[in-house]
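Page 42, continued from yesterday. The earlier attempt failed because a stray header line got pasted into the input along with the sequence. Redoing it now with the clean sequence only.
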Amino acid sequence: SSLQEVEVVTGEENETLVWKERCKLYRFATETKEWKERGTGEVKFLQHKDLGLIRVIMRQDKTYKVVCNHLVNPDPKVATLTLLMGNDRSRVWSCIDYSDGEEAVTTFA
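This time it went through. Structure tokens are written below.
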């Protein structure tokens, strides 16, 4: 028997890809004060075709579980992207993330 093709809805249908890169994502656990690995995969910056808003989304390799999902706030008082310990390939930022289905202030690297 042959498999039937299934249309997959990703939520990205009304968005345009601005930038993507393969990376490993970490989340800072405030309760233990340590970095916890969140996943490895492709991080994407997507711009909504009608609203113009940009969001960051990252899905875990193989499982496609969403491990990062938040809007980019252009206000420099709110949104900061800084180098991590002087490493020119690593960045740290805080945001309101929705990847676990609930709103949570999260620090990523």
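Notes: The radius of gyration is 15 Å.
Reminder to self: strip header lines before submitting.
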